[in-house]
Amino acid sequence: MRPEISIKKVVHIIFQAREANREGEVHAFIDSLNEDEKAHLVAVAWVGRGAFEPEDYSEALATAFAEATTPTADYLLGMPHLSENLESGLEALDIDVTEAEEDFFDR
Length: 107
Hints:
Elements: H1 7-18, H2 23-31, H3 35-49, H4 57-66, H5 72-77, H6 82-92, H7 98-105
Helix pairs in contact: 1-6, 1-7, 3-4, 3-6
């Protein structure tokens, strides 16, 4: 199962989360996502930090939907190493982000 969130959006969050003093922008961007995208974003982060294996992505997604009691932006921004977890999650799911990264830098 592949995440049902634009890889460009995930890359956008990765790069913003790496920069100092961008928390407000990252928070607003995550808040603007729909509920499905938010759950997929959390599932990718969980795979990246090793809470779920890539082959258990659908279980991670179901858990993200079931346990969404905290606003997603607050939860993710409270996660240590958010950008690394997202990047590792995409990599573990065999998702190539090269094109999305290039698009991000070409803006």
